[in-house]
Design brief:
The protein is an alpha/beta fold. The protein is built from nine helices and 14 strands.
Length: 295
């Protein structure tokens, strides 16, 4: 079992013919992802060879969905074209759009997120500026390395790409149901709360790791949600415990206002609702390991 991305998922890649898109399409195919085609209006009707797999290129997301039954798109287009690509995916009503692109203007993200809401939120957006989503042993949509962990019963949601990878590796022997990198921009599609709700509802996820970072109040809001809605054990980590006060660091979303948004404040909010919080990624993995050994 997995959330949002399964072995049956049919994936297309917007920007498949570009350098990043083609590189990661090859990696996704190697991981066993069912990639069924790509989108590039200028190259519609052609095919691209990926080590023997001939993938068709379509003029639009709607065309790709009609011809292949695709239900997931991974977006690898430059920042200036990302808004248009996401709007196209929303108009096609594809269930899941994974926006990998970094450097998307915040007003563009706000615009396509508002547009999605106006259309009934039929498309789940993950990102932008994220590593994607991986259900180990089933499917991999994005840039998460496919060989660093195994299949298991831990769910992972993380703002940070590199910390996603580290946590997956630290707990590789226990394994994960799904790992979701939600991105660290000020405005993102899928939130910690969305992932927590999905993992809570997934019968094959037994425990959850939540990785946040300094800035904003997403983790505090997640703590409130956990208290009211999550029965499964949650272990947390907040990146930025050693960040110097007053210094802007990391993602665009990592902006601290006074005492709000600090790692310590987030840690206190999470611990107040029963979440065990590690001071380092390794300590966090140890807490999860201890938790799982008792189940």
């Amino acid at each position: 079992m997995a959330i949002w991305l399964t072995k049956e998922s049919k994936v297309i890649v917007q920007g498949m013919t570009g350098s990043e898109g083609s590189k990661h399409t090859r990696r996704m195919l190697a991981a066993g992802t069912n990639v069924v085609g790509g989108v590039n209006p200028r190259k519609a009707g052609t095919t691209v060879d990926f080590d023997g797999a001939e993938l068709p290129v379509f003029a639009s997301v709607a065309d790709a969905m009609k011809e292949t039954g695709a239900d997931v798109t991974v977006i690898f287009v430059p920042p200036q074209f990302t808004r248009g690509a996401v709007v196209e995916a929303i108009d096609a009503e594809i269930p899941l759009a994974v926006v990998i692109t970094e450097g998307v203007p915040v007003h563009d993200t706000a615009a396509f997120w508002a547009y999605n809401v106006s259309k009934g939120s039929k498309t789940r957006i993950i990102g932008p500026n994220c590593p994607g989503i991986a259900s180990p042993g089933a499917s991999n949509a994005g840039i998460i390395p496919a060989d660093i962990t195994g299949t298991g019963r831990i769910g992972l949601v993380s703002k940070s790409g590199t910390l996603t990878y580290q946590m997956m590796y630290e707990l590789r022997d226990i394994g994960f149901s799904t790992c979701v990198g939600i991105g660290g921009d000020p405005i993102i599609g899928t939130t910690h709360i969305d992932a927590l709700a999905a993992f809570e509802a997934d019968p094959e996820t037994d425990a959850i790791v939540m990785i946040g970072e300094i800035g904003g109040d997403a983790e505090e809001r997640a703590a409130e949600f956990i208290k009211a809605n999550v029965t499964k054990p949650v272990v947390g980590y907040i990146a930025g415990f050693t960040a110097p006060p007053g210094k802007t660091m990391g993602h665009a979303g990592a902006i601290i206002s006074g005492s709000a948004g600090t790692a310590e404040a987030k840690k206190e909010a999470l611990e107040a609702v029963g979440v065990k919080v590690g001071k380092t990624p390794t300590e966090t993995a140890k807490l999860m390991r201890e938790l799982m050994s008792g189940r």
